[in-house]
Amino acid sequence: MNEQETLRVSKIRNGTVIDHIPAGRALAVLRLIGITGSEGHVVTVTMNVRSGKLGRKDLVKVENLELVAEQVNKLTLIAPTATINIIRDYEVVEKRPVKLPDRIVGILRCINPGCITRQPMEHVSSSFVVVSKSPLRLECEYCGRYLEEDEVLRQLTQQ
Amino acid sequence: MWKFRDVISILDFTREDLEHLFSVTDKTLERSLDVGRPLDGKIVATAFIEPSTRTRLSFEAAAKKLGADVINLEPHLSSMAKGESLTDTLRMLDDYADLIVIRSPYEGSAKHAADVCEHPVINGGDGSQHHPTQAMIDLYTIRSLKGRIDGLEVGVVGDLKYGRAASSFIYGLTKFNVKRIWLISPEPLSPRPELMDRLRSMKVDIVKTEDLEEAIENVDILYVTRIQRERFPDPAEYEKVKGSYVITKKLLSRAREGLKVLHPLPRVDELSNDVDDTPYQAYFIQAKLGVPVRMALMGLILGAF
């Protein structure tokens, strides 16, 4: 990283740095972990910076907030390469691995319009179990229909 | 093993569970008119949001034979017609009844009902995936007629994509050691990938074909299903496949000796009436067995057997 880019991604004192996000998905990452900007945290989003590993990558820094495992794990849906660094007093005190949860509740939409989770009157949260991690394949716990990786990405990046 | 259990999918049951159900059904049939009233004082609620003849009436008949009272939700006469949700309706039924039988066009509604209700829920058919009690009846019928399920070659013909009875029956077969399952359908009605993946993971010997005649020469059981017009997203697609297969007496003349034809009914045009008076016909027996199997099922769930 050159000096200009170092400035761009300057250190934070306390909080979380999500690194190695596939380029262009930082905003979807924020949406997925539930950060809207109205919480008051200082949030820095850096997109399309050079990366040895990924070619280009995105980076998100959230000050004074340590992400919990549940928030972190959802990230595997759109950013399986992401690394989570917990920062305290400018030091990385913990690198949290991103682990795909066994069940994904309420984030995604079943593709089957006849599924009970798609009936607005019934207020049933969607729920998927992971059938395959790579390529990602989820199965609706209600109707059994598969949700494939491209559809997961489409839903989470185009909201 | 059965007491207070929800019946959502045939996949939730082991071979041992099913064999126990079948042996209780045997006893129910042997004692036919003398089972007593073990469910006296219990209330069974049926909530059929989709049309049904055999399933609803055989549940009702079975419950009454066991001495239970039955209350029926009539969607068009209930507050559902005013826009009340299925979820709220279920909460109310759960307060009134000891057991709830539900059929809904929404897939997964039986699982949702089981989540919402404290009392046991039986899936009377939801969407195009699950109709577990029909599969139990189908398997019991085969066992009754053939003396076994293991070792048989079974053909399933028709709408394998949208037909919930077909899917549940196929899943049910995987609980036993059948020799081979023939899946016979035109390509647009072939089973969904979810079902095929499950069959592959269970290492079941499968033949997928459009050639009905070849299949008929090889199977011991032919399970015929209606093409589910109401589940086609596009009516034009239905027009393309309707009438794809018609099982006739003439076609069955090539069959193995002892072949039995099952059909969950209703039939439309896929099964000719000229099969009714042949030794192949087993679908009326199958329909009749709906009552004793459902008696055994409800008796087990409510702790009477």
Automatic annotation (TrEMBL), chain A:
Pfam families for the chain: PyrI (PF01948), PyrI_C (PF02748)
GO cellular component: a single term: aspartate carbamoyltransferase complex
Any GO molecular function: metal ion binding
Binding site for Zn(2+): 110, 115, 140, 143
InterPro entries in alphabetical order: Asp_carbamoyltransf_reg_N, Asp_carbamoylTrfase_reg, Asp_carbamoyltrfase_reg_C, Asp_carbatrfase_reg_C_sf, Asp_carbatrfase_reg_N_sf
Purpose: Involved in allosteric regulation of aspartate carbamoyltransferase.
Subunit composition and interactions: Contains catalytic and regulatory chains.
PANTHER family, A to Z: ASPARTATE CARBAMOYLTRANSFERASE REGULATORY CHAIN
NCBIfam families referenced in this protein's UniProt entry, alphabetically: ATCase_reg
Protein name per its UniProtKB record: Aspartate carbamoyltransferase regulatory chain
